[in-house]
Amino acid sequence: MNEALSRTGTRLRPGALSFTFDGRQYTAQPGDSAASALLAHGVRLMGRSVKYRRPRGPLCAGPEEPNALLSVGTAPEVIPNLPAPQVLVRDGLVLRSQNRWPTLKFDLASVLRAGGGFLGAGFYYKTFIWPSWRTYEGIIRRLAGLGEAPGRCELPQGAIEHCSCDVLVAGAGAAGLTAALAAARAGARVVLCEREPRCGGELEFETAQIDGSSALEWIASTLAQLRSLGVRILTHTALVAESCGELIAHAEPGGLPGGNTMYYIRAREFIIAMGAIERPIAFCDNDRPGVMMLGAAERYRAHYGVQIGARLVLFANHERVYSAARRLMAGGMNVRAIVDTRRVHQLSTDEASSRLRESLRSDGVECLAGHAVTAALGRLAVQAARIELLGGSAPHRQIPCDTILISSGWTPAAQAGLQQGGLAQYCAATGAFVAENQPSGRIVTGAAQGLLELTAVLRDGHAAGARAARAVGALGNSGAAPDGRGDPEPAAVTFARAPAPSSAEKRQFVDLQNDVTVADLRTALAEGFRDIEHIKRYTTLGVGTDQGRTGGVLGAQIVAELKGESLAEIGASRSRPPYHPVTMRSIAGFHVGAAVKVARRTPLHDWHSAHRGMLEPMGLWTRPRYYTVHGLSAAAAAVEEARRVRSHGGIADGSTLGKLEIAGPEAAAFLDYLYLTKASTIKVGRSKYMVNLREDGMVLDDGLVLRLAADRFVATTSSSHGTHMLSHFEHYQSTQWSNRALTITDVTEAWAVIAVAGPSSRATLHRVLGGSWSAALDRLKHMEFTDGHFDGGDLRLLRASFSGELAYELHCRPASALMLWEALHTAGLAPYGIDALDILRVEKGYLVSSEINGQTTPLDLGMEALVRLGNPCLGRELLDRAAFQEATRPRLVGLRALDGHGQFLAGAQLTGAESATRPCGHVTSSVFSPTFGEWLGLALVARNLTLEGTILTARDPLRSSHTAVRIVSPVHFDATGARMMA
Amino acid sequence: MTRLVCPFCGPRELREFVFHKTLPADDNANAYERTYQRVASIALSSEHWQHVEGCRGWLLVQRNPSTGQVFEVRLLGAGAA
Question: pLDDT band for position A471 (50/70/90)?
Fold first, then answer.
């Protein structure tokens, strides 16, 4: 058990929580982050780097943290890669470090890699090429990767909230708070979102006076005013993306996934006040635990009361480092030296700055201008800083210390401004890029726009809020901009990396999360990668979970230096949303499992499940594939069902068929246009099998068209195509057929359909439907139907067959479906599922979506006779294209194994005599036929090879079988149709 | 482009609509040209959309695909008369 270091001036609530890190127990206060709690215990080593396994501690105090990534939870439900500063400690939290084995302090891989030297950019591409990458892949993958994927992880359901406002302000620092207040005072409806658990941004530690009060008092009073004006304040909510005009913010309370909220916010005006991220400096071994951002140390001090170290060296290129030193000293830390890369003449000369430096000196702080820290000494922790005079030849010296705080200026968090046409513009004040060219309805303000001095930030934020309010028509008085004064202008002089001999460049880290060094950037340039986006991808600079928030611009600065160009010419790589990691669970929200899509159920659904129907989703519908029989496999059950239909009879639920009712004086002409053959020639009381074409001549769908009356038809569509066909019909009704007398009604769910098939179907129907239907049953010829009533409900009796047997369809109202179905079942007809239906239709050569696959024309599917009828329908014109007549076009054929018992499966490629490697077609459907006792198939084969008797090979390398097959007629069974006409 | 203003239903989320096709720039294009030789324009695209999760109306949408600016949305067919 560690003893907690004493804290001074913490803003946390008192109390004690307990958590474990790598198996050891630690205490924390409510509000502590994992990083602050561990730092309070003096724990700095929090992980190992991904590539070199170098020991690492936290660099930052926010989500931009590249180093201290932790796994949370116990196996197998572990959530990896959470930045330690973002994770709020809860009682009993289990945390583990990553990328180390066996322990964090002693990692075996780091020893192995130390022997093998460094892995430069492109190392894997260049090294593991003989005999092949596969030889090494397994070993490398085991060592690679960030953290470990959870074995199982079921996060609690998150919420999705859609909301709207006049003005959305992202970021609740000085600029964001001011903007929100100005907009709200003017009368706008404002939402303010802040990625941190608290509002205030850098005001939390900056020495500032605003409107006569301290920064903390001003934050508190501003928040109170915002609340009283009805502003919605979302903390721990990061703006992560925008899509279709909505801004997407992700709330992750406690920094832990699970139970999160995704906000989809429609805002008329969007103010980006996301601040700036402090930039590090590269020097030798700048990744050692104990090297930290200056602002992070201030935040740990100011909010958590944590002393980041006992003896500090501060290393920066700007004026703010002196104010920071003063505050750190006031927090009880001993600042040994301030290393300022600026020459003496570049320091600010105003009285306050000079006086501050003088007072620091008199307190024993060594202020070194024109110097740089060139190396951090120590391995698991910093022990000293090596310091050199820049541009001189003076010998270097060492200053013993346990912490080196670095800062080379601030990079505006411009990512959200670089979408929707926003362009990156070089900003000299920050030495980085800001977002320009904003579309209307979007304002970037504060540090995100390159303003770093509080007075200017407050003015700009106020103006942004007032402007946004005016834009939405909120014309109230925004009040006066707050008057504030904080830390001085940074007056930074660009400095990206300390001078180093080339041998040390591989230890100057640029992107800490991906172990990208200055040497890698040099290699990429030497190998011809010139553009920053290419360099990024080759070296992995900025591709980590932190998206290079700290190292991205630093890398671009160093590339600029190596190329001898300016940063403005180099540019910076573009951030892509999400700007902040978001779990898939949050995106899914409640759209999981059964809630992913609408469920459509037939009126017989419950009967199927009660009778052991093996239900399977098909599109939005659920249908029984087969009915489970004890002792029979799935395939055998389906074969048995099919056998029973042929020998006796069976019933199937066809309610999922799409049914569109087309009515009106012009209905017949309309259908003539939409189908390959004419509907106008169908007699009332009859139906016809018809196919639709797309504009390009391909077959779109097929089905029966029933003529109910001279001006009234029902067109059936395949089950999965119903909604699409409705749109298709409506489209032509609105275009070529606009202002014509016809209506289209989707009656799919108004009619249940029971298919009754098999030699006993007629006799059974006689028994079940009884006297009044007997005449109709005797009279109806194939494809005829009649309407009537049964037991008080509508009944349409259609004689049509999808099995090749004598068969009927009963179309009835959903309410009577179960009664009819049960009566038929009681009368001796067993149900069959769609697997059996598939067997029956393949035996008969009937088509489904395997053959009508969007790439086949009616000519390919053996419908030349129908095409020759010359109905000038939609898609007909393009059927005459020469390309559709070529010998290599596919054609529908039947297949059987040459030896009479071999198996071949749908998807197998077919090859002919001339080539064993170039397929001439493929098997579209195959079934084991109980009627023939062998495998039967349908296939699409190049036209020039489709002579019956031709021998082909069905090749199925993934399932390891080659079967010799011969081409037969696609109608395997009852070619004359005698059974169905019986 | 963030929302479409359906002439029948008013401004609605884009997710309620389904894109169908881009019309050829040349009104006299034959079937082959219409189907296989469409040229995408970055300045003005005339498209057919359907308000599937609304009135089911078919719409002619004229927009600039590079900026997302929508110039006009009107009902095809009867509603447009």
Answer: very high
Query: Which amino acid type is present at position A190?
Result: V
Q: Decide: B55 and B17 in contact? Cβ < 8 Å.
A: no
Question: H/E element holding A292?
Answer: strand A291-293
Where is pLDDT greater, at A152 or A34? A34
Q: Do A734 and B15 touch (CB under 8 A)?
A: no
pLDDT for the residue numbered A1: 35
**Residue A903 neighbours by CB under 8 Å, 6+ apart:** A897, A926, A928, A935, A961, A963
Q: Is the pLDDT of residue A101 over 80?
A: no
The predicted model scores a pTM of: 0.82
Look at residues A818, A802, A820 and name the one whose alpha carbon lies nearest to residue A810: A820
Give the separation between CA A41 and CA A514, rounded to whole angstroms.
27
The interface pTM score, or ipTM, of the predicted complex is 0.96
Exposed/middle/buried for residue A891 (C-beta within 10 Å: 0-12, 13-18, 19+): buried
Average pLDDT of span A488-495 = 94
| Chain B residues touching residue A737 (CB < 8 angstroms) | 77
With CB atoms and an 8 Å threshold, state whether B57 touches A734: yes
Tokens 């049509």 sit at which residue? Answer: A800
Closest CA to A861 of A853, A869, A871: A853
**Are A579 and A238 contacting, i.e. CB atoms less than 8 angstroms apart?**
yes
Q: Which positions in chain B touch A246 (Cβ < 8 Å)?
A: 2
Flag whether residue B75 sits within 8 Å of chain A, measured between CB atoms. Answer: yes
Length of chain B: 81
pLDDT 10s digits, A36-46: 999 999 999 99
Per-residue pLDDT of A262-273, as tens digits, reads 999 999 999 999
Residue whose C-alpha is closest to residue A928's, from A945, A906, A909, A912: A906
Cβ-Cβ contacts under 8 Å, A421 against chain B: 67
Q: Is the peptide bond before A66 cis (omega within 30 degrees of 0)?
A: no
When computed from its CA atoms, the radius of gyration of chain A, rounded to whole angstroms, is 38
CA dihedral (A496, A500, A502, A503) in degrees, to 10, reads -120
Predicted confidence band at A139 (pLDDT cuts at 50, 70, 90)?
Answer: low
pLDDT in tens, A217-265: 999 999 999 999 999 999 999 999 988 778 899 998 888 887 789 999 9
What tens digit of pLDDT does each residue of A649-671 get?
999 999 999 999 999 999 999 99
B53 touches chain A (CB under 8 A): no
Cis peptide bond N-terminal to A131, omega within 30: yes
End-to-end CA distance of chain B: 26
Q: What are phi and psi of A704, to 5 degrees?
A: -95, 145
Q: What is the DSSP letter of B35?
A: H
What are the residues facing A339 on neighbouring strands? A315, A368
What does the alpha-carbon distance between residue A607 and residue A373 come to, in Å, rounded to a whole number? 79
Q: Do A735 and B77 touch (CB under 8 A)?
A: yes
Q: Does the CB of B20 have a partner CB in chain A at under 8 Å?
A: yes
| Of the candidates A739, A846, A769, the residue with the CA atom closest to the CA atom of residue A801 | A846
Which chain B residue has its CA at the smallest distance from A729's CA?
A: B58
Phi-psi region of A844 (alpha: psi -120 to 50; beta: other; left: phi over 0): alpha
Closest by Cα among A281, A101, A111, A320 to A202: A320
The HSE-up count of residue B4 (CA atoms within 13 Å, CB side) is: 29
Span A607-620, average pLDDT? 93
The residues, ordered by sequence, that sit 6+ positions from A680 with a Cβ below 8 Å of its Cβ are: A668, A669, A671, A672
What distance in Å separates residue A694's CA from the closest CA in chain B? 10
pLDDT at A102 over 80: no
Note the pLDDT tens digit of each residue in A939-957.
999 999 889 999 999 999 8
